[in-house]
Amino acid sequence: MSRCWFWILMLALTASPVVGNDGPVPQVILAVHGGLGESPGVLTRDEEKAVMAGIEQALKAGHRVLTQDKGSAIDAVEAAIRILEDDPQFNAGKGAVFTSDGRNELDASIMDGRDRKAGAVAGVTTVKNPIRAARAVMEKTRHVLLVSKGAEEFSRAAGLEMVDPSYFRTERRWKELEERRRQEQAQPQSRLDPSGFLPGSDPGRHWSTVGAVARDTSGHLAAGTSTGGMSYKRYGRVGDSPIIGAGTFADDRTCAVSCTGHGEFFIRWQVASDISAQIEYRGVDVRQAVDTVINGKLKPVKGEGGAIVLDREGRFASATNSDSLWRGWITADGKVTVQLYPE
């Protein structure tokens, strides 16, 4: 193939629409995601409505902070994620999945696009809202990431609301754990696929995340992510959600990113920061940036997941290589859009 025809083909592929993408949607000030969620057809219509209502509530909470309260992008991200952490429909906070030994271990991170300050916590079990702890780490310490007991002791000293670990237990998640245990006992270890899942199982149900990206009236960006991690994960496992550059990233020069999916791949491919780099170094728009990484880089190596992205001009885009991505966005005038599956 001649170089001329090669570049013609590449331009054609770049211009063609990709299933699983949103955007670019202009004039967005806040977007959230509720993770990969269940596949189409798994939830009842009433359950889908409840999920969509939860996402809409998070969007309106963040919108209120940005418009009525004249708050910052960081304020809006925290407010939106706290709503999702308190909603047991989502795998974060109250709705967190269980580890293999029956614990709820929570991770979260937040990042300010003004100066790339960031904070994160991992493996916490008694912090009611991990996103608040992540922000406190960013604002009240010299560090970026605190883990386990150290993060909990810090959160308590910072005056955050603490709870008994039983607060996070829900019957739905416990039943998921029991089903995973039955699957594991029925299959020899040698039959696990390379990602660690049983052949024929639906791994998308077993990991998920919530997150938010925002742009305030000063043009500053912020991003945050919170999760209960992967169902049946090994005690002490940490995924991408509290890792800056992997699951969360924000830079006023480019964009704000929050990711969801199989965290090991997002860490290895540094997905969130790579999306920003696509904009900064290649000069592509927000939609092409997120698609290049989620579908162009992760999909070929079987890294399942998605991301929401808001650029410095208020243009929103998302992409997923899975069969679902619970997400929504809201514009400055209050128009809300919520979608659960790729359009």
Rg is: 19 Å
Give the overall average pLDDT.
Answer: 90
Major sheet: size, sense and barrel closure? Answer: 8 strands, mixed
* Main sheet strand line-up: 5-4-3-7-6-2-12-13
Number of strands: 13
Helix content: 25-40%
State the low-pLDDT regions, or none. 1-19, 192-205
Apparent shape: globular
Description:
- The protein is α+β, with helices and mostly antiparallel strands and about 350 residues long.
- The protein has 9 helices and 13 strands.
- α2 runs antiparallel to α3.
- The relative contact order is 0.19.
Summarize the structure.
The chain is α+β, with helices and mostly antiparallel strands and 343 residues long. 34% of the residues lie in helices and 24% in strands. Strand 4, helix 4 (130-140) and strand 5 (145-147) form a beta-alpha-beta unit.
Secondary structure blueprint with pairings:
Layout: H1 3-15, E1 21-25, E2 28-35, H2 45-67, H3 73-85, E3 106-112, E4 117-124, H4 130-140, E5 145-147, H5 148-157, H6 171-186, E6 207-215, E7 221-230, E8 248-250, E9 255-261, H7 263-268, H8 271-282, H9 286-298, E10 305-311, E11 316-320, E12 326-331, E13 336-339
Parallel strand pairs: 4-5
Antiparallel strand pairs: 1-11, 2-6, 2-12, 3-4, 3-7, 6-7, 8-9, 9-10, 10-11, 12-13
Helix pairs in contact: 2-3, 3-4, 8-9
